[in-house]
Design brief:
Structural class: mainly alpha
Number of helices: 5
Distance between the termini: 29 Å
Shape: elongated
Number of strands: 0
Order of helices and strands: HHHHH
Largest sheet: none
Strand content: under 5%
Length: 78
C-alpha cells in the first residue's frame, strides 16, 4: 500500500459515518500489522535479536518470538 492510500484511509477514520470509519480502521490495522511483520523480518535478517525487537515494540521477548518466530514468517530461523 502506498502513502497516498494509507493517508486516504487515515482520513476516512474520521468519517461522520461510523461504519466507514470502522472499515478504514480495520484496513489501516491490517496494513500496519503487515508492515510490522516485514520490518521484524528485516531486523532479524540484519542480525537484531528478539530482545532488541521486543524492546522497540514494547513487549516481552517471548511475545515477540511467539508472534513472529513461527515457521510461517522465518522458516526454521530462531
Amino acid at each position: 500500500m502506498d502513502v497516498e492510500q494509507l493517508t486516504a484511509l487515515a482520513r476516512a477514520t474520521a468519517s461522520e459515518d461510523p461504519l466507514v470509519g470502522l472499515d478504514a480502521t480495520v484496513q489501516v490495522r491490517k496494513e500496519m500489522e503487515r508492515v510490522e511483520a516485514v520490518l521484524v523480518r528485516r531486523a532479524r535478517n540484519q542480525g537484531a535479536t528478539w530482545v532488541d525487537i521486543a524492546a522497540v515494540l514494547g513487549v516481552s521477548k517471548q511475545a515477540t518470538h511467539k508472534k513472529y518466530g513461527g515457521r510461517g514468517l522465518f522458516g526454521s530461523q530462531k
